[in-house]
Specification:
Layout (H helix, E strand, L loop, with lengths): L1 H18 L16 E8 L2 H11 L6 E5 L7 H12 L3 E4 L7 H8 L1 H18 L6 E3 L7 H8 L4 E6 L17 E6 L9 H14 L2 E6 L1 E3 L7 E3 H13 L3 E2 L3 H6 L4
Parallel strand pairs: 1-2, 1-7, 1-10, 2-3, 4-5, 5-6, 6-7, 8-9
Helix pairs in contact: 2-3, 4-5, 7-8
This protein binds zinc ion.
The site of zinc ion has 6 residues, from strand 1.
Length: about 260
């Protein structure tokens, strides 16, 4: 008898809870951010970017190219940028004349900076069917005034960071902000180390984070400053692909900022 009552109680509990389902708030857990990498390149090494794309295509990589001196690019180079964009890469802005933003603004003001460095670049690129929504600071030079100014014109702004602090305290990860720092991977940086770069990717993989790297001129073997060897890029891309991480374009950080 006791068992029957107990069963009845359980049945009622189940029925009662079922009947209340519609009133209960449905909480859907937000999915974890897919770990990954943003690989970005600065300046105007269009031919070299195009070349390295042929090598890295097999990793299904995606890159972001921050272009400067767009007014000095040949038609052939502009065509190559369009091809890269059509293949899924991002073409972004790095200033028309590679001006140091805080230095220029302290002498000439914000309006002059926008009129000389930003608006003409945006217009030229738009006229070529390239619509940059992201910006990287030349020389990594910035301050709170330039951040505020440029976040009115772009969705995502990238600065630079250096050093080989342990992965947990590196600030080259996407930080749920529209302003992010990239870590340089050119071979001349004192923190240059492929194992270190891979340790950052491993930390990202284990903690659902996105590492942001930046480079300049891809080369087969390093001779000058601001050059990144193919081998560095190959090892990074290989790690990302074999570990099922994602290649993000930098503008995708803006799209996901409210979804995590
Ligand atoms: Zn630059």
């Amino acid at each position: 008898m006791k068992t029957k009552k107990y069963l009845l109680l359980i049945l009622c509990t189940i029925l009662f809870s079922c009947s209340n389902d519609e009133d209960e708030p449905i909480s859907i857990p937000k999915p974890n951010l897919q770990s990954g990498v943003v690989i970005s390149f600065d300046d105007d090494y269009v031919d070299e970017w195009f070349e390295v794309n042929n090598i890295l295509q097999k990793y299904d990589w995606k890159a972001t190219f921050f272009v400067t001196r767009f007014n000095q690019l040949s038609d052939a180079k502009i065509q190559k940028l369009k091809v890269l964009k059509n293949e899924g890469h991002e073409i972004a802005g790095h200033g028309l004349n590679h001006i140091n933003a805080p230095t220029f603004i302290s002498s000439f003001g914000t309006s002059e900076y926008l009129n000389q460095e930003i608006f003409p670049m945006l217009n030229l690129m738009k006229n070529n069917d390239l619509y940059p929504t992201s910006f990287a600071y030349p020389y990594g030079a910035r301050n709170s005034t330039t951040d505020k100014l440029l976040l009115n014109e772009f969705q995502i702004i990238r600065g630079t960071t250096y050093g080989s602090s342990n992965p947990a305290s590196q600030n080259c990860y996407y930080n749920k902000s529209r302003f992010v720092f990239g870590l340089g991977i050119d071979k001349n940086y004192s923190h240059y180390s492929i194992p270190y770069f891979l340790s950052l990717l491993k930390y990202a993989k284990n903690n659902n984070k996105i590492v942001i790297f930046y480079a300049h001129k891809p080369v087969s073997s390093f001779k000058n400053d601001y050059e990144t060897e193919y081998q560095t890029l190959i090892e990074l891309c290989n790690y990302v692909k074999t570990n099922n991480m994602k290649f993000y374009k930098i503008s995708e950080l803006y799209d996901i900022q409210n979804s995590i």
